[in-house]
Design brief:
The chain contains 4 helices and 10 strands, in the order ααββααββββββββ. It has helices spanning 2-9, 14-21, 38-47, 50-224; strands spanning 27-30, 33-36, 227-228, 234-235, 247-250, 271-273, 294-300, 309-310, 318-320, 326-334. 60% of the residues lie in helices and 12% in strands. The protein starts with a helix and ends with a strand. The longest helix is centred in the middle third of the chain and has 175 residues, at 50-224. It has a domain at 247-336. It is of the alpha+beta class. Residues 1-12 have low confidence and may be disordered. A hairpin with an 8-residue loop joins β7 and β8 (309-310).
């Protein structure tokens, strides 16, 4: 009871209340407010002290507020003083910073002045460069004019070259055509050479044949006591001339070519070598195209082809000259 009386009469102290009740956390101080646990409040109400405690709490709160206001005012003055001191220090720091800034600005001014001097020198140099560029531009204009003339000359030369190339192309074409013609001529010439060589071979054979004939004639003359007159005619021992006979060739209806001509005069018994179209070069080149076309098949003693055939490469290619002139007719075989 004394403790409760002390509690109601003494300044309210939440620590005393908490110690008295023995309830931890029953009394709490939240800011400047004392909070009583509901158990403690119920206890005070049961003892009849709640009204008295409430009054005491109100007085204590009033005293606490006054103390806080006084403390706040003092604290405010202290803060103001600290703030003023800090402001002074800040001002001194700003002054130092300003002085340093001035020094820096003076250095910057000096640097700017030096830069201005450099720029003036650079401008002077640039002015010289501009003059040099202008002079170079004048030179380039002159060079361009000269180059334009050169371009025109090159274009004219190109036109001339194109014309020359066209002419050369024509010449090349002409040469190629001429080469083709020459190749044909060479081929023809080669054929002619071959024909001449074959003809030479044939002539060699003819010479041998004529030599044999000459020997035969000489033997006949000797055996028959023949003599040669001033006109190269042979006569017998009794003065009678030796008869001469000829061989003629007839195209027998040919439509092209010319029948060969044998200018040799033969005596009876002479060997006659018929002239064949297969000789190289061919003799006569006879053709017959009428009536559907025909192929040449040698010579025949009759125009209707029913006589004796004389054909190249056969045993009847040669014949013995009779005691009369002989006409040989072209033999034609219808083409299939």
């Amino acid at each position: 009871m004394q403790d409760f009386e002390r509690l109601t009469k003494a300044p309210l102290d939440y620590e005393v209340i908490r110690q008295y009740t023995g309830l931890n956390g029953a009394v709490m101080m939240v800011g400047n407010t004392i909070s009583l646990d509901e158990n403690l409040g119920s206890l005070l109400c049961r003892k009849g002290y709640l009204k008295d405690v409430t009054a005491r709490i109100a007085d204590t709160i009033t005293e606490r507020v006054e103390d806080l206001e006084s403390t706040s005012a003092s604290h405010t003055l202290s803060i103001a003083a600290v703030t003023a001191s800090d402001a002074l220090k800040a001002t001194e720091a700003d002054l130092t910073l300003a002085e340093n800034r001035i020094t820096t600005l003076e250095g910057d001014i000096t640097a700017v002045e030096n830069r201005a001097t450099t720029l003036e020198s650079d401008m002077s140099t640039a002015q010289g460069d501009i003059t040099a560029v202008e002079n170079r531009a004048t030179t380039l204009e002159s060079d361009m004019s000269t180059a334009q003339g050169d371009i025109a000359a090159v274009e004219n030369r190109a036109t001339t070259l194109e014309s020359d190339m066209s002419t050369a192309q024509g010449d090349i074409t002409a040469v190629e055509n001429r080469a083709t013609t020459l190749e044909g001529d060479m081929s023809t010439a080669q054929g002619d050479i071959t024909a001449v060589e074959n003809r030479a071979t044939t002539l060699e054979g003819d010479i041998v044949s004529h030599d044999a004939r000459l020997d035969f004639v000489e033997d006949v003359i000797a055996d028959n006591n023949l003599t040669t007159s001033d006109d190269n005619n042979l006569t017998t021992s009794d003065g009678e001339p030796v008869e001469k006979y000829t061989v003629s060739y007839d195209g027998n209806g040919n439509t092209g070519g010319t029948p060969p001509v044998d200018e040799t005069e033969y005596e009876e018994g002479d060997t006659v070598h018929t002239i064949q179209q297969t000789d190289d070069p061919p003799v006569g080149n006879l053709v017959k195209t009428s009536g559907g076309g025909y192929g040449w098949a040698g010579w025949n003693t009759q125009a209707d082809g029913n006589g004796t055939n004389y054909w190249f490469g056969t045993a009847t290619e040669d014949f013995s000259m009779p005691a009369s002139n002989v006409t040989l007719y072209a033999k034609w075989v219808a083409s299939p």
